[in-house]
Amino acid sequence: MDNNDKKIIAALEVDGRMSFALLGEKVGVSKTPCWNRVKNLQDNGVICGYSALIDPTAIGLNIRALVHVVVDFGQYQAFEKGINQHCAIRSCHAVTGEFDYVLEILARDVDHFDQLLRGELSRLPGVMRFNTSISTRMVKQNGRYSDML
């Protein structure tokens, strides 16, 4: 990956809908070589896809929680399968330390969140216990990978 690839990544992180002509102009290459570079970055798995950034509160998801989960080791595959099928779970990290996983969960309100915890998440395969923290505000979100290149 050279400096032009890094510039492309940085520009697309800011605006993934940018035209190849504008992207090339920002990077300092013409449209076709720019398109080739983006295609190469996609083919090599550097660029994994494009999506819109949605504000969860704007669509009624007002509760964001982090749930630390301890899972019976023999059940981790079934647990992970269940996690991947659950739409309220925004992300799941396998972690070291006291807990096995950290989940980011979105819910409409406290009642919805309680129903998710008691009625659904507690019943996932292998769940032994969990600890929950409600996020009061987002301090940083969507940091740019290109800042670390």
In CATH's first tier, which class of the largest domain applies?
A: Alpha Beta
**Distance between the amino and carboxyl termini:** 10 Å
Task: Estimate what percentage of residues fall within beta strands.
Answer: 15-25%
- Helical run tally: 5
CATH topology group of the largest domain: Alpha-Beta Plaits
How many domains make up the 3D coordinates?
A: 2
The CATH superfamily of the largest domain is: Lrp/AsnC effector binding domain/regulation of amino acid metabolism (RAM) domain
Helix content: 25-40%
SSE pattern = HHHEHEEHE
Shape estimate: elongated
Let me know the number of strands. 4
| Mean pLDDT level | 94
**What is the makeup of the main sheet?**
4 strands, antiparallel
Low-confidence stretches: none
Rg result: 20 Å
Please identify, by name, the CATH architecture of the largest domain.
2-Layer Sandwich
